[in-house]
């Protein structure tokens, strides 16, 4: 919830709260951090608008700008595209990817849509939760995949014909139909 009448610039300024001095005065560093966060998220033209007038995607970018104004090196997002139109889902995922690539932020994103996960999956590592609580992990260029192209869980053995008794027929492993993609921080 956002207090009524709060502008985008004021909301993003609240991200600097922890950096203010004893008297809570805004410094030049605070103003610069807010300006940078608005610029990076593409909200400069909307800075004077009230938050309640924004669309869902614009509002989501405003909340990301609040975090960016803190000047932290880590951005953790849980379902950042939930309830957004497709256009804004793509826009938010592109923003997250740009923050990691161009600004060097470590980004962790929880997504339940694998198609969205593929949009941000150019990172160094990713993990996918599988049924039964097992987690498959892979690094960029890592070829730890089974025959069906699925990620193998840590510690899971590769199926080899010699691993099964000779009297049992060879059955290919089923690909799991998991929902979560969780890039590490």
Task: Give the SSE map.
Elements: H1 8-13, H2 28-40, H3 56-69, E1 74-78, H4 86-103, E2 106-110, H5 114-119, E3 125-129, E4 135-139
Parallel strand pairs: 1-2
Antiparallel strand pairs: 3-4
Describe the structure.
The protein has 185 residues and is an alpha+beta fold. The chain has 2 domains: 1-72, no CATH class; 73-142 and 177-185, no CATH class. The protein is 31% helix and 11% strand. The protein contains 5 helices and 4 strands; from the N terminus they run H-H-H-E-H-E-H-E-E. The chain has a two-stranded parallel ribbon. Strands 3-4 form a two-stranded antiparallel sheet. Helix 2 (28-40) packs antiparallel against helix 3 (56-69) and helix 3 (56-69) runs parallel beside helix 4 (86-103). The longest helix is centred in the middle third of the chain and has 18 residues, at 86-103.
Task: Compose a concise summary of this entry.
This protein is an alpha+beta fold. The chain has five helices and four strands, in the order αααβαβαββ. The chain is globular, with a radius of gyration of 22 Å.
Question: Which descriptors would you attach to this protein?
Answer:
185 residues; alpha+beta; 2 domains; two-stranded antiparallel ribbon; 5 helices; 4 strands
């Amino acid at each position: 919830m956002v207090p009524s009448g709060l502008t985008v610039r004021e909301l993003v300024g609240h991200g600097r709260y922890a950096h203010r001095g004893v008297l809570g005065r805004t410094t030049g560093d605070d103003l610069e951090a807010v300006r940078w966060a608005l610029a990076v998220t593409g909200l400069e033209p909307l800075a004077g608008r009230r938050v309640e007038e924004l669309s869902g995607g614009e509002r989501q970018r405003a909340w990301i700008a609040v975090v960016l104004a803190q000047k932290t090196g880590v951005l953790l997002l849980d379902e950042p595209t939930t309830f957004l139109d497709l256009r804004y889902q793509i826009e938010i995922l592109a923003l997250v990817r740009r923050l990691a690539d161009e600004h060097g932020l470590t980004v962790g994103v929880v997504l339940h849509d694998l198609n969205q996960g593929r949009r941000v999956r150019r990172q160094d590592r990713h993990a996918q939760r599988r049924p039964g609580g097992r987690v498959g992990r892979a690094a960029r260029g890592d070829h730890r995949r089974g025959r069906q192209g699925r990620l193998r869980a840590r510690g899971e053995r590769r199926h080899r014909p010699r691993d099964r008794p000779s009297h049992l027929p060879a059955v290919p492993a089923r690909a799991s139909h998991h929902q979560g993609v969780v890039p590490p921080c």
